Amino acid sequence: MREMKKSRAPVVLTVLFCILYILLAIRPLSTELSLQSQWTIDIQQEAKPASATEETIPFKLGQSMGYFTADGTIVSSITFPFKAAISNTWCAAYSAGNTQTTLVNSQNQTGCTLNVSGYPYFAENRIYIFLPGGSAVAQYNDQGFCIWQHEGYAPITAFSSSQGGSVIGYADGTVISYTAQGIQDQYFAPGGSQTEVVLGAAISPDGKTVACITGLNQQRFIIARKEGNTSRIIHHHYIDKQSNEQQLVQFSKDAQTIFYSCSEGLAVVELGRKKAKAQKIIPIEGSILQIEESETEDFVYVLSRKDETCTVTILEGTNTIAASFSFAAHNAFIQTKGSALFVGKDSKISRIDVSRS
After folding, report:
1. Residues with Cβ < 8 Å from 302, sequence gap 6 or more?
2. Are 167 and 175 spatial neighbours (Cβ–Cβ below 8 Å)?
3. Spatial distance between the Cα atoms of 288 and 230, rounded to a whole number of angstroms
4. Are 221 and 231 in contact (CB under 8 A)?
5. Nearest residue to 282 via CA among 270, 296, 297, 295
6. What is the band of 227 on the pLDDT scale with cuts at 50, 70, 90?
7. Where does residue 148 rank: exposed (0-12), middle (13-18), buried (19+ CB within 10 A)?
8. Which of 67, 73, 174, 329 could form a disulfide with 56 if both were Cys (CB 3.0 to 4.6 A apart)?
9. Cβ atoms within 10 Å, residue 192
């Protein structure tokens, strides 16, 4: 009897191990995504004014820009000969030797004119002018008054803005940030590379954290946080396959994730309270043009281009590919509103409703 009990023990342990393994290995199957096309419109169709309470969505395709609504109405469509800047609040066309910028709002109403030379840039309701020479930028309010201006000793190679502030990266490797009130609060040069240059930068929604891609020959990704009167680098790592081109760097809306483009695709860095927790590379071919987050679902949309093929990759939970689709286009954009994804392709805009089925 003792021998029988001894012989059964390994069997019982094996069965228990198998049961435990199966329980631990169970993972909920990811739900399938449902992509339903709702409408497609031509940007050259007749424009109709939106009501004062109706939200508009910006578009820029080729040499045309304007606004449309979620139900498929073109509110305005403007052609421009050289270049243009647009956000969900302001738009403006400008020439090669631009000496003034007239603001036009999303209802196609003319605002103030900025009598200053340079190229405009808009981020939501924030207004910037990149001044002649390439080393200076200034922020203005909607009345035409300068809030702040900064001029460096080298050309500007990276810039980003959030509701918490602005960050500027220079060709000499210097990184500078300003608060929303126009106060310079970070100034540092990361160093650590043979050639010092900032190729991409982003600032968090609260303005306290900046992320940047710096240097050539030992290129690094760096996260710095404002602490008291100093900037502290809370994370850095070397990038294996460096690029000498400007790269997209972007914080998620909740500031818990930083995205940056790299030669292997899209890098996703998860942030902790005091340092970065993890990084994952999402394989995406071509150049990453735009990253947008769903307003109602846990989806991130990534627009990329390889040759004449554009691809929209849908990420679930910021770091898992849930779906993707591709199309041929010379010009493209993506925007989100609610659960809807809007895709611009040359002269067409389509609405796609994305949900879990």
Report:
1. 266, 282, 284, 288, 290, 291, 312, 313, 314, 315
2. yes
3. 33
4. no
5. 270
6. confident
7. middle
8. 67
9. 16
Residue type for position 40: T
According to DSSP, the residues that pair with 187 across neighbouring strands are 176
Cα dihedral value 31, 35, 38, 40, nearest 10:
160
Strand partners, 156: 170
Structure confidence at residue 5 (pLDDT): 45
The pLDDT mean for the chain works out to 90
Provide the residue type at 98 as one letter: N
Q: 348-356 and 33-42 as β-strands: parallel, antiparallel, unpaired?
A: antiparallel
Paired tokens of 263: 């030669």
Residue with tokens 């199966």: 22
Instruction: Give, in degrees to the nearest 5, the angle at Cα 212 between 253 and 198.
Output: 140
What is the rounded distance in angstroms from the CA atom of residue 198 to the CA atom of residue 159? 10
Token pair belonging to 60: 């820029």
d(CA 282, CA 93): 36
Chain segment 138-158, per-residue pLDDT in tens: 999 999 999 999 999 999 999
